[in-house]
Specification:
CATH superfamily of the largest domain: MFS general substrate transporter like domains
CATH topology of the largest domain: Growth Hormone, Chain: A
Domain Major facilitator superfamily (MFS) profile: 1-330
Structural class: mainly alpha
Helix content: over 70%
Largest sheet: 2 strands, antiparallel
Distance between the termini: 18 Å
Number of domains: 2
Keywords: Membrane, Nitrate assimilation, Transmembrane, Transmembrane helix
Strand order of the largest sheet: 1-2
Low-confidence stretches: none
Main location: membrane
Number of strands: 2
Organism: Thiolapillus brandeum
Number of helices: 12
Order of helices and strands: HHHHHHHHHHHHEE
Radius of gyration: 22 Å
CATH class of the largest domain: Mainly Alpha
Protein name: MFS transporter
Strand content: under 5%
Amino acid sequence: GIYGGWGNFGSAASAMLLPSLALMYGGENGWRYAIATTGAVALLYSFVYFKLARNTPKGSTYFKPKKTGAMEVTSKGDFFFYLLMNIPMYAALAVLAWKLGPANLNIIGAVPTDSIYLGLLALYIYQTSQVWRINKHVFSEEVAEIHRYKFKQVAILDLAYFVTFGSELAVVSMLPLFFKDTFDLSLVQAGLLASGFAFMNLVARPFGGLFSDKFGRKKMLSILITGLAVGYLILGQITSGWPVFLAVIATMACSFFVQAGEGAVFAIVPLVKRRMTGQVAGMAGAYGNVGAVTFLTVFSFVSPQVFFMVIAGAALVALIAVQFLDEPKGHTAEVMEDGTVQMIEVS
């Protein structure tokens, strides 16, 4: 929660600082120098990170996946479920190509667009072959009960992150223009007011993880997604007749539930299967971007009010899915490098 909160907070801070930095550099290339500066800072920090960071907290054991190339599953049903859950990630990229292609913005031509479609299809087929290579044993032998996990846990977390982080990315993209058009503000005023949505990350996302650890992970995720749905329903009611300060309060209240929900999702991610934490986190994170593409595509066809309602509806679907989440409890088994089995408490 803390790491993710600072990351998303950084995006909001950058949105405010980069224009000022570009103006400081001045000239028609000021924006280029500003972006180049962020690259230089990131490069310097990479050396700091390499020098100081560790794979795990001191005293903890680092468990690596048994195989790389695809996520491990432990049953035949989960094998096909995994293949199904991979499709939206490629579909989101196809939607982006469609939006940039001749049928919409016409930024890229028909041949490049069709090439992207074929490339994505080929990539999905290759990924499917890797899934088969890693998991074909589940069709010929039973996985020991002690090493099993339910892929539905991953899928539900993916859907939860789809509506939390996905909606955040989408709303951050459209909120300044929404405030400008609704309340007849300048671009600077609208941008500053809308930035409050992302600035809440600094507090909200860590609290989502903290509350999840303290009061129960499934319960808190359910509460936060419910708050998210109610928040977007309220945002869907905002009109020019609202006082600006009230609209900002409603926006920041909604953003608290959105970002705390993100923290609650990642409070569960390491508890699915310890050695696969990186893979589970990566898939959940990808679904956040799938959500952003989906919601922004919807936004290109509807009014802001309907857009907020669509997110609220998606949140209700995610809320239902979360009720099928198994509360992490007891222990999970991981195999050490010497072949011994270590039981790790997850409750």
